[in-house]
Design a protein that fits this description.
Blueprint: H1 3-28, H2 35-146, H3 149-166, E1 175-177, E2 190-193, E3 199-204, H4 209-216, H5 220-242, E4 257-260, H6 264-273, H7 276-283, E5 286-289, H8 291-374, H9 385-396
Parallel strand pairs: 3-4, 4-5
Antiparallel strand pairs: 1-2, 2-3
């Protein structure tokens, strides 16, 4: 019996028992004893208990069956899910293993590259150490070399020559070096040759001693003293060139000169610490130049020289064209005269080869006829030749104009 049927039977017995009790009470009255009812209730309780026991047992069996069926279904699905999860886990493990293998190879490659790089870095550092040592020795040697004024002057002139070469100027063509001035005692380091026999002089000045003391100073007082000495040295060099014959327009010089300072740091140090020095130099017709500014000035000078030469050549070409035009007119006039003379000669030739020749031929034919009439013979001459030619010429003859 199904559990649902047992439950229905229990409900039906309970309803029947309740109806029977109500009927008996109606017959006996409300106060009558209920022995029979109690007996029926007891019997009904026993029946209900039996039905409950059966329903419980059947429910338990059905629950166990249903639970077992559900458990088997869930177990099957769980096994399938576990298999799918196992496949995913296996695939993930394979990917992790491959990634670990790639990472291991990468780490090994990086380690090898790092070891190689460390070895190369060691070589580079060793080479850098040797280069630094050599540079230090070279710097010390350069400092010792530049400690003398004559050596600094030679080095400054070499720097100036490099700038001139880069600017495209040629010695002997665009400038002269260490040439004494005509009629004077001074000898500028460089003399630039300008158009119209003008010149521009330049001296090389390298005030380095005080500047080196400034760089090596360890206190502010030492730096201030070195700076003061350096600026005073620069003013002295400017005053030195203004007392020479470098600026003399009466001797075809420009009304200013150049002072070349062959170091950009020294040139910048001058302007940084005392900008009035450049102004004072300009008032004295002296232009201070660094390597960069000298290149710019020389570029302007070279361009001006080329423009002047181009203008001069253009004027010469225009003069040559004017002379050529004059000679061309004379040539045409002479050619016309030759043409006229050729025409006159042609006319005279036609006159002599035409009318004059025919007239002479007629006279000669008349003489020949007289000779023939007289019976005079000429050796090697056939009778009748001259007469025939004369007759032909007479036939072709036209009256003269």
């Amino acid at each position: 019996m199904d559990a649902a049927l047992i439950v229905i039977a229990i409900v039906a017995v309970v309803v029947a028992l309740a109806a029977l009790v109500v009927v008996q009470r109606d017959r006996r009255g409300p106060d009558a004893p209920s022995i029979e009812s109690d007996r029926l209730v007891s019997a009904l309780r026993g029946e209900i208990a039996t039905l409950q026991q059966q329903a419980l047992q059947q429910n338990s069996e059905q629950f166990l069956t249903l639970a077992e069926s559900h458990l088997r279904a869930e177990t099957g699905r769980g096994e399938e899910q576990l298999k799918a999860r196992q496949s995913e886990i296996d695939r993930s493990f394979r990917q992790i293993a491959e990634s670990l293998e790639s990472m291991t190879k990468f780490v090994r490659t990086v380690d090898a590259s790092r070891a190689e790089s460390i070895a190369k870095l060691g070589s580079v550092m060793e080479e850098s150490r040797r280069t630094t040592a050599a540079l230090g020795a070279t710097t010390a040697e350069l400092n010792r070399a530049l400690s003398g004024g004559q050596t600094r002057g030679q080095w400054g002139e070499r720097m100036a020559e490099d700038v001139l070469r880069i600017a495209g100027l040629l010695e002997g063509v665009n400038y002269r070096k260490n040439t004494q001035l005509a009629g004077g005692v001074t000898r500028p380091d460089f003399t630039f040759l300008l158009p119209q026999a003008r010149v521009l002089h330049m001296d090389v000045k390298f005030p380095l001693s005080a500047y080196m003391r400034f760089l090596e100073a360890e206190s502010d007082r030492e730096r201030d003293d070195a700076t003061k000495d350096f600026l005073g040295d620069v003013r002295a060099r400017i005053q030195e060139v203004t007392t020479r014959e470098y600026i003399d327009p009466t001797k075809d010089t420009l009304d200013y000169m150049l002072v070349f300072i062959p170091n950009e740091q020294v040139y910048g140090f001058i302007h940084e610490n005392d900008a009035t020095i450049a102004e004072e130099a300009l008032r004295k017709r002296v232009v201070l130049c660094s390597p960069l500014s000298l290149f710019a000035i020389l570029a302007v000078i070279r361009q001006s020289m080329e423009n002047f030469q181009l203008e001069q050549h253009a004027n010469e070409m225009l003069g040559a064209m004017g002379e050529f035009n004059k000679q061309w007119e004379n040539f045409k006039k002479s050619w016309d005269d030759v043409g006229k003379r050729i025409e006159q000669t042609q006319t005279a030739y036609e006159t002599m080869s035409g009318r004059r020749t025919r007239q002479l031929d007629r006279r000669l034919a008349a003489v020949e006829r007289l000779r023939l009439d007289a019976g005079i013979e000429v050796a090697g001459l056939v009778d009748g030749e001259i007469g025939a030619e004369s007759d032909l010429d007479d036939a072709d003859d036209t009256p003269p104009k």
